[in-house]
Each structure stands twice: as C-alpha cells, then as structure tokens.
Write a structure and sequence with these properties.
Distance between the termini of chain A: 26 Å
Oligomer: homodimer
Strand content of chain A: 25-35%
Mean pLDDT of chain A: 93
Radius of gyration of chain A: 31 Å
CATH architecture of the largest domain in chain A: 3-Layer(aba) Sandwich
Strand order of the largest sheet of chain A: 7-4-6-5-9-8
Helix content of chain A: 10-25%
Chain lengths: 396, 396
C-alpha cells in the first residue's frame, strides 16, 4: 500500500497538458490558458477623465475664476484642438484629456454661465485624470499561461482586445462502470442489483473540473466485455473505471487490463474510504481504477482525479486545498490508513469554523456524502483528538 | 441613494424563478432543482455484504469451526437457496445476503479447504452487512427543490434511479454595453475609444452563476440605438446594460428606457465602486443598469447580478457569502458609501487569513481586480481600522 501523497505524485507524473486550441472569448470561462495573454493595446489609450466636468489648465482653475468653454469632448469624440490659457472643454467620464489641459473641474464644482464656466472649487493638477497605461500597456503580460480563467480574467482579456484565446483542450475522460450487479439510471436492474451512481457523479465532477466526460455502457464482469469497453477509450486522455480494482474473484478489471497490455503502476493505497485504487497506462491513455463504493469513488476522485484534470488542463494539479477548522466531536486514534471523514461545517459563536464528522462513515452511504460540507483529514496513526482540536478539512 | 442591502432586496423582489424543464442527468451539474428528487428505489435493495468473504449463520461462525460451502453469490447473482446450520456461501462486496445468513466471515479470516471453509476469526452477527435501505428507502426525499446540484447530488440522483431531473430553465441574461467610445474585442476601435471588457466579463459571470448570456452589439450613445437593442431583449429574464446609468449629458440609457416605457425603480446606490446602479422593469423583463467602469461593473454584478441569477434559478438569492479575515494594512474612516476594497488574501504564521487591500482602488483598474482574491467590506461610516483588525471579505 502506498500513501495518498505518493499515489497522487505518481498519477500526476504520467500526465502531460493537452494540446492548445484557440477558442472564442465567450467560451473562455473556466478554461486554462496555454499561452500568456499579452495586452494588444494600452489602457487607457490616452490620459482620460475619471469624472464628468471640464478639462482646463491647472493654473487657471483657481477659486472664482471664469473660463471660456471652447468645446465639448464626449467619450469617443476627442476634442480636436488645444486648450489655451483661460479656456476649458466640457468633458465626461472616459473622455480623452485635450492637449494643453492638466486638470479637471468637477461638474458639481462648476457653474455654467452661457459660454463660460465658473470655478467654485479650486482644481488640483492631474486629479481625476487617469494616465495613459494606468491599467496596462501594450505588450504587458496580463495573464500567465496555466491559469484557469475567472470571469474577471475574461473581462481583462476583452479589455486587452483579445476576441479569442489559446487554451488547453478540455481533457477527455472516459468513464466505465463495471459489475454484473450494476445498471445505469433508467436501465433494467439485474436481480439483486443496484443503480450505479459512479459514472454520473464522476461525470459531473469532471465537468466541474473543466473536462469533457464520456459515460460508457456498464461492462459486465467478463474480460472480453471490459476489454471491448476499454477499446472505446482510445483517443481519451484518461480512462476511469469504477469497481473491480481489487483482486477478489469477481474483480476482473485489473486482470483484464493487464492481459490487454496495461502497465500497472499500483493498485492499493493506504486510505479510507478507498483502499483499492488502481493506476496504470494503456498505450497513450492514463488509467485510473476507482473503488466501486460510491463514497469511496467520489472521495478518491476529489483526491486524485480532480488534480489529474488540473494537470491535463495545463496547471500543476495540487492536493485539494484545505482550511483549518475545530473538531465538533472527539475522534479516536487512527490506524495505518489516512482517513477522510464526511463532516458538516458550522460557525460557532466566535465565528470560527467547526467540522463535525457524521457518526456513521460507511463508504456506501452516498446520501450522507451529498449532505456533507467537508472531509476531515486524519493522518495515518493520528492520535485521539478532543472536540475543539484543530483539524484540516477539504471543503466540498 | 439607497443602501446595498435595500437595492438587492428590491432587485430580488421583482424576480420569480424560471419555469421548470426536464433534462438528462448528464446535464444536471450546476442546475437548480425545481422539484424534490425522491428515491425511486431502496438502497441497498436488500441486506448486502460490505466485504468479500462467506455468508453464514452467526452461531456457526465460532473460532476453528468448519462449514460446508454450498454455493457462491457474486454481486448481481443472488444465491437461490437458504443457508442452513453448518453451511456457508461464498460472497462478495455488494452481494445479497442469502436467506438464513446473518454474519460475514471475512476472506482474510477464512481458510478454504476443498468444499469447506475454516473460521480463523470468530464472526460477529450483522457485522459487515449493510441493511436494506441503509442509504435511503423508496419514497425518501433525497434532494429538496431549490438546490444547486453538486457532483455528489448528481451521483445520489443516479443511485436513486433518476435518468433525468426537473430543474429551472437557465436564466436568459441579455448584456448590452453602451457608449460611442466602446468597441467589442476585435472590432474597430473608435478614436479615443476603448475595448469593452464588460460584456464578456459579465457573460462569464452569468455562465458561472448558471445563466445563459447573450452579448448584444454595442449601442452607440443614441436613443434609437439603445431602444433598438433593448427590443432584442424581449423574452429574456433580465436585461443588463453597462454604462450610461447615471445622468450626465451623454448618459442616455436611462432616459431612452424610461421614454420606452421602463418603470424606473432606483438609479443611485450608496456604494463604491459603483454609485450609478439602475433598476427597473420593461414589461416582463427585469432591467439592471450597471456602471460603465469595468471594476464597478463586475463588483456590482457580484453583489446584485449573481444573487439575481440565483433567484431566477429557483434559489433564495442571498448576499455573497463572507469570511472573516485580519486586515493586512490599516484603513482610514469610511464615508457615507459602503466600500468594497480589492484585496489579496494570504495566510499568516498562525494559519489565519489576512486580507491586504491594494494601495490603489481606482475603479478603472481591471488588472488589479483580476489579481484580487477578495473584496473587503467597509460599512458606511466605518471607523478607522488598524492592521490586524477583523474584517469581513467576499472571496473572489
């Protein structure tokens, strides 16, 4: 059995980012940049006004001065001339500052009298003027490669005049549930069988992580059925199976795939839920075998598949981020396996986060996982912990 | 000027959830349920084994006992007979417990000898048996209406045998940038003009919040152009404009829309960035006028548009969640307007969250907003705050 950290490192080591593709900016949210986003223009392109008012020479903007208004410069319609002594130009938020001007008289500090404007509050040089390039200059790297784009990043790329961006192709993840007892939702259920939650739950997680999931039909516990299904994964970045990863008599996936040419890397991991976790490679396709229990399968996916998707998408692919919380109930000593306890999160009176594990942690109880807010991390051999003790949790 | 809280309440009050639609489960992630998800079966459907091993009568499973193995019951292939005294059936994780059995002898505690199996560790009644309905029973409400579906929820719905779900239609949000100085990325830029970041940034935010954005061509500062564009929003749930919401000479949106029949609700709000914020209604379409400055526009969208999308999607639509952090730099007293300071988040040596505002908070500096991790909330009239003081922040 290997550790969670080693398993993740070995899975990630076998993965390279998908090739780049160019997409329209309106499709860019959540995608990962494959090239830096470099400003194609300077923003603002010239000195512009941050307010509505009048542009003038600072030396003219003394209290009670009266200036001749020689024109108007709405945003998008720069003033053609130059502002001389005693002159002012009507100006608006975003208007280019006309040559000669170096101050703004705010609209609320101005009194218009026919062709003239009266200064009711002395101006300050350069105040309310946004200098050219204040936000960014042409050629600046605005967004590095390997960043998953937020809505703010998309806005920034737009402002820098990028109608399309180069991003990594969405990782293609093929999902295969195995087992004679398994049916997909809506399909006939075998005797004593159950409906498989794994493929659809994992597909949703893949989507959330920016991948493109494909759900294969369930493979029965039969070597040829498994091999046939796996052939469908050619061209995928990763094949994820559920069930059949350990070595019981009816756990055929590993045997079938090894016989089919899979290089097996490891298949046991020191964690709970989820001891059977298989990793290998079939030609160009990375292969991740998740446990069949729905809770184990989703928890392992959070710990290994989501980082794998990050790596495939062009990001490093780190362990899920954790936050500090206080234990809401005491915990006993842990054994040799890292534990990931399903828990609720609440705030105590002091506004501090409290993580309370569910009393039952059976790895088949999907309903509790759906209701959980977090996973409490318990290291191998962790000592007993009292209520109130600090723990690290993964927010779900 | 009205407060942020009142503005949000008034925007939300005018919105009703979109009608329900039925979609395939593979499309359900991130959608909001319009009906409860009720279990269509009992899970597990019968008492099943949680481990590989042998099913037997607990009274027979004493140390060193030898039992006759009368059959095998792989998952999906229940044993047809009944287990009598001195008998055992080979069983696997997920197998139905045969009638008569009430205990599991683990594989690692068993020694197989031909047709018999030797008990190397005494069994405990009902241990390693998952009772029928342990996860859920047919008819249980597993997911309430009005929940935005996580990957775990999707898995749970699958396990409950739902191939499709009834969710609220994605809210249709039409985005209109206005201004003679504005061009969309890749389009010709007018003299002294800039490329609009607002439509694309907001579209990404709409997508993130589960809506369906449509970006209209930019409307020039001309009443007929604005009215024409607004006609395109018929059938939308909400029209969001950027720019032109205040009442400068070249801020025509409000005038054009009121003339076109918009019921104006409010158009000024006591916050920074983003004082001009217009809300109204045009027939069946809710209307939100955001400021033209890109930072103001995105911050207002986080505070008002994202909750509006939640309400339209069938959820309550609350204020963005905040977390507690320590100030990384002192802040002066605040004026009458609620302030939302762009800030970075770090962890200090004690593992506590520290929010450090950027020295410059100009509402045109989109690059800083893209780099920000959080918005620090400063209430109207907030007193000066020292470094280390607790503040509430919205994580970005």
């Amino acid at each position: 059995m290997i550790s969670v950290v080693e398993a993740r490192a070995r899975i990630l080591a076998g993965l390279a980012p998908t090739p780049p593709e160019t997409i329209g900016l309106e499709q860019a949210w959540g995608r990962t940049t494959a090239a830096p986003v470099i400003a194609r223009l300077t923003q603002p392109p010239a000195d512009v006004s941050a307010m509505d008012g009048y542009a003038l020479r600072a030396v003219d903007g003394t209290l009670h001065a009266s200036l001749r208004v020689i024109g108007s410069a709405p945003a998008g319609h720069p003033f053609a001339g130059t502002i001389g002594p005693g002159e002012a130009v009507r100006i608006f938020t975003g208007s280019v500052i006309p040559p000669g001007a170096d101050a703004i008289l705010l609209q609320e500090d101005a009194e218009r009298r026919g062709d003239c404007v009266l200064v009711c509050e002395a101006v300050v040089r350069n105040r309310h003027i946004r200098a050219a390039g204040q936000d960014f200059a042409r050629g600046d790297t605005l967004i590095p490669p390997g960043r998953r784009l937020t809505a703010r990043d998309v806005g920034l790329a737009a402002a820098a005049n990028h109608p399309w961006l180069t991003v990594h192709r969405r990782p293609r993840i093929v999902l295969l549930a195995t087992g004679d007892e398994i049916a997909l939702p809506g399909e006939p259920i075998p005797p004593g069988g159950i409906v498989s939650s794994n493929s659809h739950g994992l597909a949703a997680l893949v989507r959330e992580a920016g991948g493109e999931p494909t759900i294969l039909p369930v493979a029965t516990d039969d070597r040829s059925a498994i091999v046939e299904a796996v052939e469908a994964a050619v061209g995928a970045d990763m094949l994820v199976t559920t069930g059949g990863a350990s070595v019981g008599e009816h756990d055929l996936v590993q045997a079938a795939l090894v016989e089919h040419g899979m290089e097996l890397d490891f298949w046991k991991i020191a964690m709970r839920p989820g001891k059977p976790l298989m990793h290998g490679r079939l030609g160009r396709v990375s292969m991740l075998g998740l446990p069949g229990n729905p809770v184990s399968s989703l928890v392992c996916a959070i710990l290994f598949l989501v980082p794998a998707l990050a790596r495939l998408s062009g990001r490093p692919g780190e362990a899920p981020p954790t936050v500090r919380a206080k234990l809401g109930a005491p915990l006993g000593a842990n054994d040799v396996r890292a534990d990931f306890l399903r828990a609720t999160l609440t705030l105590d009176d002091a506004g501090e986060l409290v993580a309370t594990p569910f009393p039952r942690q059976d790895s088949a109880m999907l309903r509790l996982l759906a209701q959980a807010d977090a996973l409490i991390l318990r290291a191998p051999h962790a000592l007993p912990a009292a209520a109130g003790a600090p723990v690290e949790v993964i927010r779900l």
